[in-house]
Amino acid sequence: MQDIIQRSMQANDEDWQAAPEYSYLKLERHEGETRTYEVKMILGSPYQRLVAVNGNPLSPAEQAKEQRSAEEASAQRLGESQAEREKRIAKYEKERSHDHLLMDEMAKAFDFKLVGVRNSGGSDVYVLKVTPNPNYQPPNIETKVLTAMQGELWIDKKTFKWVKVEAEVVRPVLIAGFLACVEKGTRFELEKMPINDSISLPKHFSMKSKARIFFFFTNQKEVDETYFDYQKAVPTETAGIRN
To answer: 233 vs 110, 138, 237, CA distance in Å?
Structure first.
């Protein structure tokens, strides 16, 4: 079992390293509306441009507006000082590192039990039940939520790539210096798909979170995003915003 987990973590790390090399389309669902964005890297961090609403392409006037915004963003980034550029890229890398840390910590935070082998998209996958490891010591506040999560992890039997992760908070977790609490029922699901023979990238991500701030104010958040049409990034980073 440990060999399966370690090989899957290595495969997942390879995917994480390769992700910035690809542009893609992202469809966001929110309150009955869908918005589709083109996401491309521009000088070290992503830029997203709206291309459709509820499945309908933007009007010519709206397309022109989005194009102007993209050109302005490119010009702004080209005119940055070295310090400004480093600050922008550092913010993006910090967000990526946060997500990567949570994935890496899963190997330590959970106990895994093989519950079967299923077929998913024509490939056999290991299905693992995931429960909290009672001996896990989270290294920071962000990873503390892992101590109260359980779910399933699907791993491709041949490539050891992650196919799907489902997890749910099963008891409240105090975070942020005991000023906030992640509530029971917070859950997320991540599905991945192969882009080529060596890389798998996100296909769908959904999250429903509920937290109490200062134990009085409730903050609820829902995310539902689908990713598709992955393309290898254009070598010239600024070319990605041009028609």
So the answer is: 35, 36, 8
